[in-house]
Structure formats: C-alpha cells, structure tokens
Sequence to fold (277 residues):
Amino acid sequence: MWLLPVGCSATLALDMSCVLMRADACLQSEDAVLGGSLRLRQFKHGHRFGHDTILLAAACPGRAGEQAVDLGAGVGAAGLALAVRVEGISVTLVEADPRLAALARKNAEHNGLAARIDVANLDVTASARVFAAAGLAPESQMRVLMNPPFNDPLRQRASPDERRRSAHMGPRGALAAWVRTAGRLLRPSGTLTLIWRAQGLAEVLEALAPAFGAASVLPIHSKAGRAALRVLVRASKGSRAPLSLLPGFFLNDAAGRPTREAEAVLRGSATLPLAEI
Fold:
C-alpha cells in the first residue's frame, strides 16, 4: 500500500508523478546565500553546497555580455551566484545527475535568472560532439568555473550516499579530464577558475600546464595561524605568464568569528582578488 506525502490528495485518480514530485519536494530545503539575494533549493541529505561554491563564484572574473560555464554545477549554486554578482553574464550549468540538473533549472527560474541561464544534463567528461550538440561548441566560452570532486577514493572513506560520494570522490585523472574539457570550451585567453584542496595544489598546476598559464593562487585559511584548507586558482588559456601566489584569505578571526572580508564575500557582493584581471 502506498503512503502518500502530506498535501497530496488520496484519491484513486491521483497521478503517480504528483506523488513523486511531492515526495521529492519533502526531501528538499530552501537556503539563502549572498545575504538572501539568492535562494536555492537543495536536497536535505547527500552533498549540500557550502562556502566553496560561493567563494568560487566570487573569484571568477566574469563581465557583462560574456558566456560562462559552471562544470559539475549541482543545484547551480556557483553559476547562479556568478549570475547574481555579474549582471548581463550568461551561464550554462553542466550537471550529470538529472535530478540535480532539474533542480538547478528550477533554482534559475525561482530567482528570476532563467533568461541568462541554460542547464545541460551532461557528464563533464563527455565528448566534444556531445557538448556541441548541447550548444557548447569548442572555444565558445570566455569563463569556466568548477568545483571538481577532490577526495581520492583510494585514500579516504567514501560516503554511502550516492550524490555525496559523486560530488566528493574523484578517481585518479579526474581533475586532468575536467581541465581538458575546460580548455576545449574556452576561447584563447579565456579563464578557468577552480577550487581544490590545498594539499593538492601540485596536482592542479600539473593539470593546467599543457594548456594554461598565468595561474594565480589564492590560499583559503580557516583562521590566521592555520594551514590553508583550500586553494582558489585562476589561469588563462594559452598564456605563458608565470605563477602568482597571492596573500591568504581568512574565513574566521582568532576568536572563530567570521572576518569582515569573509562576510563581505559570502553574504554580500564583494569579490576576491582573482576576479580582477
């Protein structure tokens, strides 16, 4: 016997698609970011977006009139935050999970961004032909941003939740494959912005080396005196300029309270130094 979600009419004529949609909605929460200027629905369990995606959007040097792609977009947090920050930019959200892609589309509509947002239900490692069929031809984009899965399944325990596992765990070579996709999509001098675990910076620089230069690295620290947790990296396609290591960015002060700079980025409209080129 079916137990119907609260709010669904228990009649024999009830369409099962209604049941499934209502059940799905019960598993979601609506969360405010950027001080409430962006409201996003996401699943209550499994992977949930956090500071990483908002920092990523604040580090992308997008401009009005440009086209950008958010690879592995999930429910669209980073790409939609970029669209809120940069009036006039167009963003395509690329997400392999069809339920997350559908939620990303709804989030764009809910925030009045549908006119500037496309959603492509694609695996990031799909072929150039598949991407082109979805309207993402080679060298068609000026900006790419991405938050790839950066935990090694051979070294770290994987989550039993499929979506959380997919978002966090990447096989060896996954980063290089994502970077190759970004390089294919970007125009010459276009930029790739990504966030990664700080201990893996060498892996990032190695993946960038074949096609990118002018890499700028921004270490992200939980507080002063602590080793960096993350690195934000921006690089330009085809550039031969050298690496630049920027002063660190601190999320909390010595007492554990958010710093004024972090609040301005996470709750306001402030950007990070990587957004300046």
In short: The longest strand covers residues 186-197. The chain has one domain: 55-275. Confidence is low (pLDDT under 50) at residues 1-21.
